[in-house]
What we know:
By secondary structure, the chain is α/β, with parallel strands linked by helices. It is 24% helix and 25% strand.
Amino acid sequence: MNILISNDDGVFAPGILAAKQAVEDLANVTVVAPDENNSSVGRRITLFKHLKIADCKLEDGSAAYSVSGSPADAVIVGANYIMDEKPDLVITGINSGVNISCDITSSGTVCAAFEAVSLGIPAIAASLFIDPKTAYKQDDDGEWYLDYDFDLAKKVLHDLVLKIIDEGFPEGVDLFNLNVPSNYESEDVKITHLSDKMLDKKVIDNTDKEKAEIFNYPLEENQSSDDLIMITSNLVKEYEDGTDGYALFVEKRPSLTPLNVNMTYQELKDW
């Protein structure tokens, strides 16, 4: 089996190395990813513009390729140009951050998997929800640092790929969206459906006192905050049972959502 791995956090992000390590005993793995962070770019594709490809090495010394484009670009370049033949499976991630609900269409991680499906390749989008309540810790000097690992995400991803190798994708499923919590209470994976939304979005300006610290980032020379706005967001707190958000945040267990990229609704006979 040949697997292409990409992401939206950039080729040197720790999650892409974790994804490679999770499945390298199961297949021939090629890593092709953006040369820098491309979070929340959706399925943006760079058409009729030059892209730069560069050889690079991951932290473990293994070979990878960077592309000066989007996650979808990286999948196209990897599958159609760098690899000798199209891969049997594309894995995007492991993203450092959650990707759930109908908001996944803004995710570079999930939309890179969508792009793989459009090329005729089944895909898995994998993400790790890093709970700030448990992941942020202080050292003896009072300095804050992030403390989390990809161990469970790697295990679940490995087992999922092994099952796909043995049984193939279920009929009608184009890709799986996998989310694993860093603060899990159960390792048992739950099959879920998409929540209505993941983020409550708000537009602020320099009059917003609640978000003042976020808004007051360094301005460019001769730029006034009076003519600036910012879109901010908070995670939705309530989810219905059976959804990806409920499994992740309430049950604190991995969520696996089977998806079909054909979003046509069929049942309109009497409309």
